[in-house]
């Protein structure tokens, strides 16, 4: 475990000094974080990863500080192009420390593959016939992945769903698989393809789609945090945050933005660790609409002591084996930083960071507004876009923040004045 994640003042260090400070907390060498220096992969490796590769695109990786998750001090790698995300997560993690930080639970690494069956005359009887032969189906599925079974995973159950659609009734078989430390898509897809002919023959029909569902609602991760009112801006800020949370529950227009704030944190950790951002995002938004209406993924309350009590639950299909996580040196360094040894532990960190991010954004919206903190940090991007270089960047950013106008036209004018010595 990191000695502490409470690294105040990291912002004033140079990147190499930050790497040294983080390595010291983790008891590793700064060189162990060296993969972040050049993005971790060269063109040769990129060419092996995707088709028609022509290069790579750099995304900054930063470290969210101050996190205590289930009693453990965690330094969290985050890959994001957006300013103020890492600052906001670190800020809320700091506020959460007096009451013990974040507490998480998970439902275990259970993924599901769907096999669509067509041309079945008697869907109800077919369902019964498939369930009668569940053991045979599971045995065939598990024969596809002895390594997963060796690691304690494997196909656990068969569910058969009769989906009443607008134009027809669908017969869909779910293979419910414990994928242990894998994200699991390839693992369950292989099982679905192998068992589909057997399922079709039992149903006396034919199979069509054989693929994982990204509505990974058997693989949930949950986080909870309590923050004292005085640590988050006072009782009025807490009251206003509850109003903001209520609107996000009721209004899909607000819910989409509220959830985007959550995904600022979630996607950044998922990307840094080489996991599949689209799978996590698809699962999250499906979960947000699980009662038929798109709602916020988090809940906001005031506890008996007047503290803000926030929770977040979402599907979290992330892995430590397979995908890019194993093969990408920067993803490996990111996993090392988190010190997790199971996919379940990684899922807990991701959901805690999502909740911190959500609280951070809504706190700012309920207090001073988003522009002060966010645009203050975005000012450096605006300065670079206006043509500032080297030392000019920070100087120009400071000028446009002081002018209260973090805009391209103001930045260009101020840059001209800066260069003219005014
Ligand atoms: C940016 C802050 C945190 C400043 O807030 P502040 O109160 O000025 O911060 P501070 O300078 O007093 O520092 C407090 C702590 O915050 C962290 N911190 C503070 N600044 C930095 C920094 N530069 N670099 C690294 N860490 C920083 C750091 O942990 C620091 O502790 P320390 O290290 O000093 O002991 C605050 O204004 C904030 O949280 N703003 C919200 C930012 C945000 O949510 N950005 C996301 C982008 S907007 C969006 O996409 C989503 C949205 C908003 O639409 C979602 C929604 O609507 O729900
Ligand atoms: N709809 C979707 O989300 C889809 C996603 N994908 C992609 O699939 C990839 C992930 O698939 P995976 O099956 O996770 O990858 P994978 O097939 O590369 O690795 C999983 C395999 O690793 C082995 N293994 C070794 N140690 C293990 C352990 N401790 N726990 C579990 N398995 C262990 C098992 O044989 C297991 O089947 C991602 O790259 C994702 O982008 C692919 C198709 C569809």
From TrEMBL:
UniProt-listed Enzyme Commission number(s): 1.1.1.88
Swiss-Prot/TrEMBL keywords: NAD, Oxidoreductase
EC class of the enzyme, as a word: oxidoreductase
UniProt keyword Transmembrane helix, yes or no: no
Pfam families recorded: HMG-CoA_red
Keyword Metal-binding in record: no
Catalytic activity: (R)-mevalonate + 2 NAD(+) + CoA = (3S)-3-hydroxy-3-methylglutaryl-CoA + 2 NADH + 2 H(+)
Domain of life: Bacteria
Pathway(s) where this gene product acts: Metabolic intermediate metabolism; (R)-mevalonate degradation; (S)-3-hydroxy-3-methylglutaryl-CoA from (R)-mevalonate: step 1/1
Family that this chain belongs to: Belongs to the HMG-CoA reductase family.
Protein name: 3-hydroxy-3-methylglutaryl coenzyme A reductase
């Amino acid at each position: 475990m990191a000695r502490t994640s409470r690294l105040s003042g990291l912002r004033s260090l140079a990147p190499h000094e930050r790497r040294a400070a983080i390595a010291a907390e983790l008891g590793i060498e700064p060189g162990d974080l060296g993969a972040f220096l050049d993005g971790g992969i060269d063109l040769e490796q990129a060419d092996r990863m995707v088709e028609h590769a022509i290069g790579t695109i750099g995304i900054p990786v930063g470290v969210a500080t101050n996190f205590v998750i289930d009693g453990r001090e965690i330094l969290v790698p985050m890959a994001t192009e957006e300013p103020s995300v890492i600052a906001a997560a670190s800020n809320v993690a700091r506020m959460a420390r007096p009451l013990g930080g974040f507490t998480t639970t998970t439902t275990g690494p259970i993924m599901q593959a769907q096999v669509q069956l067509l041309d079945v005359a008697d869907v109800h009887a077919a369902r019964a016939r498939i369930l009668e032969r569940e053991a045979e189906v599971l045995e065939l599925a598990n024969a596809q992945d002895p390594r997963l079974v060796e690691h304690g995973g494997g196909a656990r159950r068969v569910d058969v769903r009769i989906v009443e659609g607008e134009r027809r009734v669908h017969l869909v078989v779910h293979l419910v698989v414990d994928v242990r430390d894998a994200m699991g898509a390839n693992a369950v897809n292989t099982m679905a393809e192998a068992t589909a002919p057997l399922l079709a023959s039992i149903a006396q029909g034919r199979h069509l789609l054989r693929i994982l569902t990204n509505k990974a609602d058997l693989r949930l991760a949950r986080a909870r945090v309590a923050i004292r009112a005085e640590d988050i801006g006072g009782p009025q800020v807490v009251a206003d945050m509850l109003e903001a949370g209520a609107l996000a529950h009721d209004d899909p227009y607000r819910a989409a933005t509220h959830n985007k704030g959550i995904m600022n944190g979630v996607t950044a950790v998922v990307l840094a660790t080489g996991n599949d951002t689209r799978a996590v995002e698809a699962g999250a938004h499906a979960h947000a609409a699980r009662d038929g209406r798109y709602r916020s993924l988090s809940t906001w309350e005031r506890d008996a002591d007047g503290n803000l009590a926030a929770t977040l639950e979402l599907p979290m299909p992330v892995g430590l084996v397979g995908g890019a996580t194993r093969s990408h040196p920067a993803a490996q360094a990111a996993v090392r930083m988190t010190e997790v040894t199971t996919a379940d532990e990684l899922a807990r960190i991701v959901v805690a960071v999502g909740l911190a991010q959500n609280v951070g954004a809504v706190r700012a919206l309920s207090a001073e507004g988003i522009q002060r903190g966010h645009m203050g940090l975005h000012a450096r991007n605006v300065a670079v876009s206006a043509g500032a270089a080297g030392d000019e960047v920070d100087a120009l950013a400071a000028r446009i923040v002081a002018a209260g106008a973090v805009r391209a036209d103001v930045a260009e004018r101020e840059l001209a004045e800066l260069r003219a010595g005014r």
